[in-house]
Specification:
By secondary structure, the protein is mostly beta strands. Helix content is 6%, strand content 23%. It contains one helix and 13 strands. The protein has one helix at 10-21; strands at 28-30, 35-39, 47-50, 58-59, 64-69, 80-82, 95-96, 106-107, 119-120, 128-131, 137-139, 148-157, 161-162. The two termini are 24 Å apart. 34% of the residues are buried.
Length: 206
């Protein structure tokens, strides 16, 4: 029986995560813990068109998100799809969507999306992509026999504030440099917080 990514042992998650994070530089702290995403064969639902920034409680919205393919990501198993150039758009509201099965239960106004320009991000296991919080993106359902697995990590500069009641924020780690006084309290590396539900995105899955 295959192990789902969110069932990996905590020690394994720590090794993978800090290997990636330790290579970052500058005044950067990831605002979100590794967010493991998995689409079941023939069972993974679609993620409707959205902008990550619509869901994140951040001021300023300065974020870059790394998407690491744990396995191959293809159109058949529901790879990420993007609308190139939309990173220049302002953040738009999302609306509840119950007319189609989807992970988030919400999506962008379809009139804002020109699907004729959509591009599939085809990734081999170990490949990475990076995207902007304003970029309109989503993914189709997994209609294949194969899992689609990935890991996302979002990075913010230290002046960006996480607007949340819980401080220190469970998934805010300072990787390099000095924290900006009065902006965020950072979680220590020794604290065990490996829960996808703690990410600022509120559980956004691509």
């Amino acid at each position: 029986m295959e192990t789902r990514p969110e069932e990996f042992p905590e020690k394994t998650l720590s090794i993978v995560t800090w290997t990636l994070l330790s290579n970052s530089s500058g005044r950067i702290s990831p605002c979100s813990l590794p967010h493991y995403v998995a689409k079941l064969p023939f069972g993974g639902q679609a993620v409707l068109w959205h902008q990550d920034g619509s869901y994140w409680p951040l001021e300023l919205m300065e974020v870059v998100t790394l998407w690491l393919a744990v396995g191959d990501s293809t159109p058949e198993n529901g790879c990420m799809r993007v609308i190139p150039g939309t990173q220049t758009m302002t953040i738009q509201e999302v609306h509840e969507r119950t007319d189609v099965n989807n992970v988030l239960g919400s999506g962008k106004d379809p009139s804002l999306v020109d699907e004729s320009k959509a591009a599939d991000l085809l990734l081999k296991a170990g490949d990475v992509s990076f995207h902007h919080p304003n970029l309109i993106h989503g993914s189709k359902a997994n209609t294949s026999l194969k899992w689609r697995r990935g890991l996302t990590i979002s990075y913010i500069p230290t002046p960006t504030r996480i607007v949340a009641d819980e401080q220190p924020y469970p998934s805010a780690f300072l990787l390099r440099g000095q924290a900006v006084p009065g902006v965020n309290e950072h979680t220590t590396r020794g604290r065990s917080t490996w829960k996808a539900s703690t990410c600022p995105s509120g559980g956004v899955r691509d």
